[in-house]
Task: inverse folding
């Protein structure tokens, strides 16, 4: 076994921690709901990270975890299976450490995401079958003698859920001076399952009454597994167009036991909610943010109907600039057969 030079390792960890120290925390945006008195919506804006998405936190944690396990050294090629945002953030950290990075992505990944990976010095390895990216990443790691950083396995364990600048600690600290400081619900999506695992564990560790809802694309296995643990994968069939969340097979980082509720959301609902929120904010957000918001709308309507007051917190997962040729292109949406205008009207009414 070849050991990693401790001086290089210490410097690598220092570089990552210094990078974090140069960045402020992400913003928490309060959204008043004039037609839902007593309920307030909050959006934690993860698009304000240096690499533009929630995955910046995950990438930082994965690199630190791999470094401290001595899986990454000064000449290691780092490889990841990713549809885009995680790879963008990991390419950023690989560049920070002077390491080669290869992203294994499914064909059809949004071009702006691929350009962002390349901007940070990453290389692209495209796979036609989106279910075969993990296998391809393992093969590349073996061929290059590199390290497969494997977000889908390590996401739930790389982040210290008890509190070490993780998203849950940040979210609840920012809520502490709001009228309803302990959220009634937190809503997030699941790609690896790492974010939901971190938030769900944090809630239990801090003995909070907050409940966790995970919003999942209809064409994903996670909500099916939540309803029936025997379901571990999907057969051939249509897949969601919402990048970054939903999977065809249950990943090791998905922890259903810390989730209180799951909502299956159609692609049309996700896109409609995304477009309505973008109009309300005056800037574009990504598709998975729309998925989150649609589940929030269901919860908020239920709270209002029962006379329950409180706060609901969800995430702006990434910005919408990377989706100009897809989610914000009406012709593209029409080719996908997505009738998003009705869902957009529902969310616009909620927000307005």
Result:
């Amino acid at each position: 076994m070849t050991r990693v030079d401790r001086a290089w390792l210490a410097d690598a960890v220092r570089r990552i921690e210094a990078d974090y120290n140069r960045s402020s925390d992400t913003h928490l945006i309060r959204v008043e709901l004039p037609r839902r008195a007593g309920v307030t919506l909050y959006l934690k804006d993860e698009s304000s990270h240096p690499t533009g998405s929630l995955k910046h936190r995950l990438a930082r944690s994965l690199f630190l975890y791999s470094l401290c396990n001595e899986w990454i050294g000064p000449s290691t090629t780092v490889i990841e299976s990713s549809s885009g945002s995680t790879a963008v953030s990991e390419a950023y950290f690989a560049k920070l450490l002077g390491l080669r990075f290869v992203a294994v992505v499914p064909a059809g990944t949004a071009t702006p995401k691929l350009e962002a990976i390349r901007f940070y010095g990453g290389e692209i390895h495209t796979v036609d079958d989106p279910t075969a990216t993990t296998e391809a990443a393992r093969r590349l790691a073996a061929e290059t003698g590199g390290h497969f950083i494997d977000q889908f396995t390590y996401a739930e364990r790389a982040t210290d859920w008890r509190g070490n600048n993780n998203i849950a600690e940040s979210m609840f600290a920012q809520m502490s001076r709001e009228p309803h400081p302990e959220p009634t619900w937190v809503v997030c999506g699941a790609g690896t399952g790492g974010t939901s695992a971190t938030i769900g564990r944090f809630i239990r560790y801090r003995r909070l009454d907050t409940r966790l809802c995970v919003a999942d694309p209809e064409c994903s296995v996670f909500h099916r597994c939540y309803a029936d643990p025997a379901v571990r994968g999907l057969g051939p069939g249509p897949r969601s167009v919402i990048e970054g969340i939903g999977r065809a097979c249950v990943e090791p980082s998905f922890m259903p036991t810390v989730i209180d509720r799951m909502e299956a959301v159609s692609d049309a609902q996700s896109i409609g909610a995304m477009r309505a929120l973008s109009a309300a904010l005056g800037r574009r957000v990504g598709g998975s943010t729309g998925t989150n918001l649609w589940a929030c709308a269901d919860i908020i309507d239920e709270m209002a109907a029962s006379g329950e007051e409180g706060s609901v917190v969800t995430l702006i997962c990434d910005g919408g600039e990377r989706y100009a040729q897809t989610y914000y292109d009406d012709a593209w949406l029409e080719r996908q057969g997505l009738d998003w205008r009705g869902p957009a009207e529902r969310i616009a009414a909620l927000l307005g």
